[in-house]
Each structure stands twice: as structure tokens, then as C-alpha cells.
Amino acid sequence: MNNPNQIAMHQSLHEPKLAFHPDRAADSDIHPLRGLINFGPHSTSLVLDPIRVATVAPAGNSNDLRAFTDRLEAKYSPKERSDYLPEWPGFHSVFGVYVREASHYCHIKLSSEVETKVRGSSTPHLVLAEELVRAINRLQAHRSEFDLVVVYIPRRWAYAYTGAPDEDFDLHDHLKATTAAMGLPIQMVREDGALSYRCQASVMWRFGLALYVKAGGIPWKLAATDPEMAYIGISYAVRTTDSDKPRFVTCCSQVFDAEGAGLEFVAYDAHDVEVQRDNPFLSRVDMFRVMTRSIDLYRRRHAGQSPSRVMVHKNTEFKRNEIEGCMEAFHLCEAVDLVQIVEDVGWRGVRIDRPLGKAKRGNPAAFPVSRGTVLPLGPRDALLWTHGDVRDISEKGSYFKGSRSTPHPLRLVRHAGHGSWDDTARAVLGLSKMNWNNDSVYDSLPVTMSYAKVLARVFKRMPSLRRRPYQFRFFM
User: Fold this and answer.
1) Pairwise CA distance, residues 294 & 191, whole Å
2) 130, 140, 72: which is closest to 106 by C-alpha?
3) How far is CA 468 from CA 266, 398, 471, in A?
């Protein structure tokens, strides 16, 4: 850029394809749900048939829960997002396996005494959480007879979903923290959510994906990737001041190989933290420790081999000590990129169609900026639109998720590394399609960031952090 008042030319990246077979490259699509219908899931042998479901529900609602899970084999036409959402053809048609009830020992019915006890308590959220955990613990005696647990949450419990305004309590996160420590995947079904939602096609796509992944399945991976690339995401959680544990939990999500597939996560209590503007920054030693543990996970899954390239994402800047800790941990890697991903930016963009005929100026386009648009701002900064117009998703030609507002970009800030913006942006764009806990074509954030946020939120509620890694399916 010779003129300091002029920004660089933008470029547009192709929408990343998803792979639905480990060997057949032709089994790919940019549309995740269309790909599942046409090719089936990427993993065809990881999930045993059938998937056995245990349940926990109030006695009066156990039949409601059974009826809901039975709907998995019904067909539903979409009542929303008709330009994107396909018909739900039934669980077995999509994933090639069935969902069945586990043995009769694996179904807990909560008595009316539990309801009375919860409603009569001054801390109903804590009592309800305790009763649900007690019920789930009872299922542990029959752990070999089921694959996951579905918990029914009726509308009448809404007053116990959260605690007082000054309490950091969330029923969903509390149960996830408890069951993740057990190594037990659970799926919560809310009466005022999934059961009453108007579009059951959307509900079944999301519920079906969740059950398949929590049972150990892989629905899709990224196609056309560097096999020796690893992605790491870092997020921090802040515990309440009255906690007797370290205030900060560093959640490092090294669960993504070159194909964006979820591997495992590590959590680390940060003891040596510098706080600036309410943001924690690790010391060189702490960053070295958490990155070393992360890269060890990659080696375990790749016969002891280190990745040739590593890309680390976090939402705050990398301080000098953090950069040095990363570089020391990744000394065997040929290339290391440390990229800050900023969500809240003031930039907006509109698309202008080329002028027609002899006109000198173009006209605003009917659709927004294309997803995958990259606009370099300088050698260290670039804008990337992960939300915007996508072609070949809808029969109408253009597809704009949500169909509202002007999409804003992410700001990518490179604190270390010398790769092209193409590589950095392409990685972020691809990883934004790897959220298996959603039926959408993409998220605004890459999974390195979105998963790390979820983990941080749940990890801070866990009674203790173990050194061995966690699987993300326990936190979904």
C-alpha cells in the first residue's frame, strides 16, 4: 500500500468443503446436512448399533421423554430456514445406526417428593442440581448397559435453572461439569425448548447430531487440509472471588488436527497470571506448560510425531512472555502462527455490483459481502468475513444466514508467524464449520474459540481438574 489512505485489495476465499468419508474424496459437500444425507457420516465404525439411551425424568414425564426420542425415526419437513434446512428423514437414514432405550435398569423416575423438596427450598437450584446428580450417579452402577443419558427438564422447573443474581450458577453447566468428571455424556431436553419448538425438523437435526457425536461419532471433517497442521485454541474462565481455587482457569483446546476433528482438551489452573483491563495473561512458564501438554495430545494421536505447523488462536493479544512460552514449547515445529481473533470490531462492509453499461458507479448488491472475504489492513492485521453471502447452499443461488443486518468481520491480528493471510484466513474459515453441536452451515467463530469458551465456562465449575485430557463430547 503506497498510499496510507488507501486500503489493500480484498480477496475472496472459496467456501471450505467438508469430507464425509475417510477415503473417498468425492464424498464431500459445503453443506453439512446435505452431505450427511447424500454420503452418511465420516465415521461408520466408531459408533455401535444401536446407540443405547438411559433417561432421567420426573415420574409424570417419563412417557413424554420416551415419545420425544421415538420421534427420531419420524420424518419432518422444515418450517424455517427453507433455503437451507433439508427434510429430516429419520436418524437411521442419516447416520446408519438406530437409537434404542437401554435396559430397564437405566431409567430413573424422580418421585413427587423430589418436586416437593425443590419447591420448598430457599435454594431450589442447588437442591434440584443435587437430586439430578444423585439420580445420574445411580445410573453409574449400570454404565456398561448404556451409551449416554438424556435428562428431561420440565417447564415447571424454570425457576431453578439459575441462582440468585449474585450467584454464578447455571443448571446446564453444573450438570455438565459433574458428568464430565465422570466421563459420562448427557443430553438435556427442555420442555420449553426442544419439545415445544415449532420446527421439529430443526430440533431433530440438532438432537440427532448431538446424540451421534456424544456416542463417539464423527459426522464430518474438513477436506483438503495440510495433514501436518495442528490448531490450538485458548480461553480463560474467571472463578468467583469467594472460591478457594485459583481465580483463573486456562482452558486449552488442542483438539483439532488438520481436518478440524475433535481430539481432546486439557484444562490448567493458572497460578502466575498478570491481569490487564480484566484480561489475564500467562507467564512464560505457565504458557510453556499448557502448550506442552497440548502438543503432547497431538503426538499421542500421531504415533509420536509433532506437527510441522501450529496455529494458536485466542481472543486477547499475545504478550511477550506468552509468545516466548509458545515458541519454547513448539521448538520442533517448522512454523508457528499466534493469531488473536477479535470479535468486536467497528468495521462493516457492503458489496457493490459492477457498473452496468456506461455507468461509472456500481449499485449496492442485493446480498451482503461474501463469506470468506479477506481485507488486509497491514502486515499484522486483516479483516475476515466469516458471516455473509454463500453460494451453492440454496437453490436460489445466494444464502445469507439469518437474512438480517450487515455482517461484521473478525479482525485477525498476527503476533507471530510469517504465513500468508490466505492460509490464516482459510484456517479460520474452515474451523468455523466444525461445530458438531449445531445444524448450521457455519458459526461466526472457529471452533478453536467457540469450544474453548464452552469449556472455560464449565471447567470453572468442576470440583477439581485432572491432568489427563477430556473429550469434548462430555461438554456438549
Assistant:
1) 39
2) 140
3) 7, 45, 10
Query: 60 Cβ partners below 8 Å, 6+ apart?
Result: none
Could you please report the per-residue DSSP string of 413-456? EEEE----HHHHHHHHHHHTT--TT--SS--SS-HHHHHHHHHH
Positive or negative, the CA dihedral 189, 191, 193, 198 is: positive
The alpha carbon of 248 is separated from its chain's Cα centroid by a whole number of angstroms, namely 21
For residue 394, the 8-state DSSP code is S
150-164: pLDDT as tens digits: 999 999 988 888 888
Tell me the pLDDT tens digit for each residue of 360-394.
677 777 678 888 999 988 889 999 999 888 888 87
Q: How far is CA 412 from CA 70, 324, 342, 381, 383, in A?
A: 45, 20, 6, 6, 6
Please say whether the beta carbons of 189 and 151 come within 8 A. yes
Q: What DSSP designation does 352 have? A: B
56: cell is 432421567
Query: CA-to-CA distance for 166 and 75, rounded, in angstroms?
Result: 45
CA–CA separation, 372 vs 387, rounded Å? 8
Whether 357 shows a pLDDT value over 80: the answer reads: no
**What is the value of pTM for the model shown?**
0.89
Closest CA to 110 of 161, 163, 60: 60
* Other residues' Cβ atoms within 10 Å of the Cβ of residue 81: 19
Rounded to 10 degrees, the C-alpha dihedral 367/371/373/378 comes to: 120
Nearest 5°: the CA angle 301, 306, 310 is 105
Residue 457 CA to chain centroid, in angstroms? Answer: 13
For residues 476 and 466, give the distance between their C-alpha atoms in angstroms, rounded to a whole number. Answer: 19
Which of 236, 307, 242, 233 shows the shortest CA–CA distance to 265? 233
Alpha-helix residue ranges (DSSP H) falling in 183-234: 200-214
Q: Which three cell numbers stand for residue 72?
A: 427420531
Task: State the average pLDDT over residues 179-197.
Answer: 87
Distance CA 53, CA 98 (A): 11
3-class DSSP string for 95-136:
HCCCEEECCHHHEEEECHHHHHHHHCCCCHHHHHHHHHHHHH
Only one residue has cell 493458572, namely 270
Contact between 460 and 403 (Cβ < 8 Å): no
pLDDT at 204: 94
Maximum mean pLDDT: which of 292-306, 308-322, 391-405 = 308-322
Joined together, the cell numbers standing for residue 69 give 426420542
